[in-house]
Structure formats: C-alpha cells, structure tokens
Specification:
Helix content: 25-40%
Oligomer: single chain
Strand content: 25-35%
Radius of gyration: 23 Å
Strand order of the largest sheet: 12-15-14-13-16-17
Number of helices: 10
C-alpha cells in the first residue's frame, strides 16, 4: 500500500513544474512547493533571471494553494557543477552541466533538503520522464529497483539529463507530466483559467542558465583568461590561424579562422600546448567515430548481468539527436562494469570527450558514463605520426591516444 503523503515539488516558475504541482494537489497529496536558487549572479545588464523565476514560482504556489519556500543551493552548484565545468573546458573536454546539476543538486542536495527540512515522503519535478514506479509512485515496491524510462513526448524526453541520478533518489521521485506531451501540458494550463494561461506562453529557458543571453566566448573570457594558441591543419600540419584558448571551442564546431574562407572544423584540442587541430570540411574522416571508450559508467538500476560480455543497446550523447544502435563491450575483469568499449553501427560526427554517453534498452534509460578516447583520436594520431620529421607540429603535439582513466567529477 502506498503510504506517500507529503511531496515536495521543485517549482521553477515555468509551465512544466506548474502543472506537475497542480496534478499532485489534485490527487490529494500534501504538496510543498520549493524554488531552487542555483545561480544568483547578475548578467552584464544587471538582470538576474533567478529573481523573476522565483517570483513566478511563488505566484504559482499561491494560485494552486500550496506553501512556497525558497532554498539556496548556490554553493553546491558552484562546487559540483560550475567549477568542474571550467576545469573541463580548460582541460580540453566538453562537459554537460545539466547532467551534473541533476546528479549533484536537484536529485541530491534538494532530495536531502526535502526529506530533512520538510519530512517529505517523495519529491517531484517537471521533467519529461517516466519510471517503473508510475508518475505518482503508485507502483513502488521496496523489493524492486526503480527503472527510468523515456517520456512519452519524444521531442521533450529528458532522460539524457537524468542519466546520472542515484537509485535512492529515483525511487522516491515523481514525474507527474512524464506521460504527457508538451502541447497537452500547455493546453492544461490554459484550461485552468486566465490565472494560469500566462505560464503556457512563458518562454522556455534554453541553454546554460549561468550564461544566459551572453555569447559563450564572452562568458569564457570572464572566467578563463585567454591563452593564445594555433589552429593546425590535420592533413598538412601547417598553422592556418590563431585563437584565444582551447576553452573557447568544442569538437565539431566550425572554427571561423580569420582570413581563411575554407570551412575548417575543430577535430581535436590539446590544452598543454593550446593547439587545436582542424579538419577541412564537415565530412572529413577526422570528424567521425564508430568506436569510443566510456569511463565510470553509472548504471541507474544496478550493474547488468548479460549472458555474455556484450550488449546490443541504443546510444546518444546530445539531447536533440536521435538514438543510434550500438554494441557495448563490457570488461570481463571489471565486476562493476564501469569501463566500456562502444561500437556504433553508423559513424557519428564529433563524438566528444567529456560528454556523457547515455545508453538505452528500448525506452529504458540504463545510465551513462563519460566519453574518453574515440576513433577520431586514433585517426588523428596516425596522421600526425606520418608527418615529416622536420615538421614543427609533430614534436609540439606529440599526440598520444589517452589511456583509459576516470574523468568523472568527484561527488
């Protein structure tokens, strides 16, 4: 029998958390609304979006008829999300702050806060995701692990961002709108009357919250001092331009080299020398990988026990991209199955070290791990090793395929 009474619902000030809280209240739960302040610095115009969102969240709770609270997680966010993000960019990696925020803040700090401060039986968020325990934990069982599934709206599914959360938090989390499409959520808000109609039309927050409307390069200059470096053509080894640091670029990005009209794309970054290897054209072989390594794999519902050390799964590393089939090879000498080798059926563009490889078995999200060495890394290593010995680039880069190692930010 489900004994859940009090549910603490994260309220962001948008339509998704609004309708989530409304549905919880309508089902008879004792609902407490909480706004999480994770970033409170103003942008260059003196505007702090968190202040406006907090006001909207308080107004939503008033209209629904539930108590409202605000909790400050700026320190936790700075420690577990923002600082590792800067370190990753400076080390040539491309992080995913949304995954880190969910892992360390929303489903760790907030989860603990809800239980300790409000004596919550469960938490709820407006994520588009589902679990085997049901949208209101009506099928929860102490004898079973909770499984994470894609939301029914394929365009809004957010399981990629939830792929690092703990089993402890997941089994106590409700996703009230996970079985709804976004258009239905907005329609529901409009049908609730004029008081809620405005939230159906509120602009959704996009991108990284602490960057806001600023250009990414301007943001990075504020926190990471520019470091002069060189763009190097992967085929010729020649210097084709200059840049202000590897932290300004990510793999697959068009480099827009001053004075060069050719379409160069970032193929590899070397933070020690501040050199960026670029490839001419989107279809250059240095831009594609069909194999890569994964370190520190997090299995949401427990380590799999396949009949052999290989699994046929689906994979993605970017939210907007469709999943692609893959073979996942498990290390037989690794009992926790944290080290993986992934073989894709179709080569993918710019498989990016530092990003999270998220794996699916049908609609079930199994978890994720950070991408390490890729096929493109080895391809570029082979090209550079074939350059003439007198090439100034060859000794400078000394490209080596990185050893498999853990690159996960510490908890």
């Amino acid at each position: 029998m489900n004994q859940i009474k009090r549910v603490v619902c994260g309220i962001s000030g948008g339509v998704d958390s609004c309708i989530s809280a409304y549905k919880l209240k309508h089902r008879g739960f004792d609902v407490v609304g909480v706004f999480m302040r994770n970033w409170d610095l103003t942008d260059e115009t003196g505007h702090c979006q968190a202040d406006k969102d907090c006001e909207d969240a308080a107004e939503i709770c008033r209209k629904i008829g539930i108590p409202f609270h605000e909790v400050n997680f700026v320190k936790e966010y700075w420690t577990h999300v923002f600082t590792p993000l800067l370190e990753d960019y400076q080390n040539g990696l491309t992080p995913n702050p949304d995954i880190l925020c969910n892992r360390h803040v929303k489903f760790s700090s907030f989860f603990q806060y809800a239980r300790e401060k409000h004596n919550a039986d469960a938490i709820a968020t407006g994520h588009y995701a589902r679990t085997s325990f049901g949208p209101f934990l009506e099928r929860s069982s102490p004898e079973k692990n909770c499984l994470l599934f894609k939301g029914v709206d394929p365009l809004k599914d957010q399981t990629l961002f939830l792929s690092q959360i703990s089993q402890e938090a997941l089994r106590c989390t409700m996703f009230p709108i996970g079985e709804m499409h976004k258009r239905v959520v907005k329609t529901t808000a409009r049908q609730l009357g004029s008081e809620f109609k405005q939230y159906a039309h509120k602009k959704e927050s996009m991108g990284i919250c602490f960057i806001g409307p600023r250009k990414f390069s301007n943001f990075m200059r504020e926190y990471c001092p520019p470091q002069r470096g060189r763009f190097i053509d992967v085929d010729t080894g020649k210097v084709v331009g200059q840049h202000e640091g590897v932290q300004m670029y990510t793999l697959g990005q068009r480099s827009l080299i001053s004075g060069v009209g050719a379409p160069y794309f970032v193929a590899q970054k070397y933070p020690k020398t501040q050199d960026i290897v670029v490839a001419l054209g989107h279809d250059h072989p240095a831009m594609y990988s069909s194999t890569f390594e994964v370190d520190e794999m997090h299995w949401i519902s427990g380590t799999p026990v396949p009949p052999r050390d290989e699994m046929e799964l689906d994979f993605r590393f970017q939210h907007a991209h469709p999943v692609v089939p893959c073979r996942v090879r498990l290390d037989p000498e690794d009992p926790q199955k944290k080290r993986l080798t992934v073989v894709l059926t179709v080569k993918q563009f710019a498989v990016t070290p530092g990003q999270y490889a998220v794996f699916y078995d049908g609609d079930q999200c199994l978890g994720s791990g950070r991408i390490g060495a890729t096929e493109a890394t080895k391809f570029i290593s082979g090209i550079v090793s074939g350059l003439p010995d007198e090439s100034p680039v060859k000794d400078r880069l000394r490209i080596e395929v990185p050893e498999r190692r853990a690159v996960m930010a510490s908890c």
